[in-house]
Amino acid sequence: MPDRVARHHVREEIQRRILSGETQPGERLSQQSLARELGVAQGTVRESLFELQWLGLVESIDRLGVFVGKLDVERICQAYQVRAVLEGLASRLSCHNAGRADITKLRSMAEDVYKLAKKEKEDERGRLDREFHFHIIKLSRNDILIRLAESYRILGMTVRASREQQRIYEEHLAIVDAIEHDRPEDAERAARLHVTEAARRIEAEARQGNFIPKWVD
User: Fold this and answer.
1) Backbone phi, then psi, for 66, in 5-degree steps?
2) Which residue has the higher pLDDT, 60 or 70?
């Protein structure tokens, strides 16, 4: 197996274990054990863990090893600050790139997110909501922005703050409408507002002791 393919495979497998809860926050990750289990060289595991560290999933502690990252509200809200800026920019750039089919898809996804929320299908709703936002990011056609977005997308997988679903639906549509009618400033403003409101809800739940960060896939 080529080194790049092997590294991708190892990174995805370790990421899967963390997001699924199979490997818990604070748990030590042994490079030797992982290499033996996954049938690759320790160097491949080391490089994969370095990539996951950049994404925020693991952390390296000098002379102790590599551990699954521990989640806290401050770290998640920092990720949301970055997300607000990048998704605002992505929405602005999408105005010039989105075609009719893209708009139709985004609007359909927003509708389905809302329907799944009404049916209380939280796992499916969460996955589709993330797909909606990442589709806008891809429409920016900015490779650097897309790569940067990967890091906060991982942290975004920890969040299930309780927001009013009708409001989320309206915010999604406001973003799509602005992109459809080629209003870059409105698109950026709507996207940043949407992310900021989510962060505010997380902070409010944290103050009340009702928010527990948890990896979800």
Assistant:
1) -110, 135
2) 60
